[in-house]
Amino acid sequence: MLMSTTHQIEGRRIRSYLGVVNAEAIMGANLFKDLFASFRDLVGGRSGSYEKVFRDARQQAFAELEQAAAELGGNAIVGVMVSYQTLGAQGGILMVAVSGTAVVLD
């Protein structure tokens, strides 16, 4: 399914707008990831374990977004927005939220 952050697809006509679709993926980070991330904060560098959690959450959220659009009969999603947040007292829960407008392209 074609997804775009723009509100139109160049060279394609939007035949119908089916409505807003959204999806969220919430992933808990475990103690070991927190410990390694704290160590990375001290010495610098990237936290591969957290990057993987965000990547997995993003992929899950986009898959659910695509499914929601398909259930409405859409073949594309325009105006896609992605939001990342940390939740919980220690920020140990990661959330990715995605939304857009399901459409039918000619």
From TrEMBL:
**What Gene3D superfamilies does the database record attribute to this sequence?**
Hypothetical protein apc22750. Chain B
Residues spanning the signal sequence: none
> Which Pfam families does the record associate with it?
YbjQ_1 (PF01906)
The family database entries (InterPro entries) matched by this protein are listed as:
UPF0145_dom_sf, UPF0145_YbjQ-like
Q: Which family does it belong to?
A: Belongs to the UPF0145 family.
Please state what the protein is called.
UPF0145 protein Isop_1728
Q: Can you name the source organism?
A: Isosphaera pallida (strain ATCC 43644 / DSM 9630 / IS1B)
Q: Source taxonomy lineage? A: Bacteria, Pseudomonadati, Planctomycetota, Planctomycetia, Isosphaerales
